[in-house]
Write a structure and sequence with these properties.
Elements (H helix, E strand, L loop, with lengths): L22 H12 L7 H6 L4 E2 L11 E2 L19 H7 L4 E7 L6 H13 L3 E7 H5 L7 E10 L2 E5 L8 E4 L1 H11 L6 E7 L1
Helix pairs in contact: 4-6
Length: 199
Amino acid sequence: MADLKASPSDSRYIPLTQQPSSCVPTCIQMVMYKNDIPLLPAEEIGYYLGLTVHPDRAGLFHIVRTAENPPPAGYGTQIYKPEYEPNSAFKKHDIPLKFSKKLVSEIGSPQELLVLLATIEDKDGDALLCFHHGELIDDDSKNWGHVVVFDRILDGQIRIVDPSPDQPKWRLVKAEKLYSAMRKHGEQKSAGIWLLDKT
């Protein structure tokens, strides 16, 4: 019997699994680990990015903001608000990363999305992808944003690393599907490519 690996041997990332509404800080942890940056708890990173959860889930966290109704982008981090801008959180915690966004409104087509991501991969760069969760996985009940780590382009598709506990860690998605999910989430909710450059 051939020696089988339980994970892709060419992945650029070690996957981590998120707490509820904590996809963003968990994805940041994956990028930190890849770049030999000392890890901080996802809850700590998330708190300074405005992490907000429903009161029913507050007991899963040490300290967290709560709201009875979801914020505009959904429960989770609120980086679209100036007070929760990622570079400020990185500076506060001495995390040597610089955050910038390429919003979906600046990406002209699924093909352009592929080209942009291929360029990031060629440079062994790091990027997170922000989109409407339900649109990507064809589940109308998940009417909120989600963030994953971009891994590689394979056979014209985009391989992502997903921190969600109920999705595969690695999976291929079509550029057309991801682009549609980004457009549905919208630029006001920061949908698009989030670049993380080591400083």
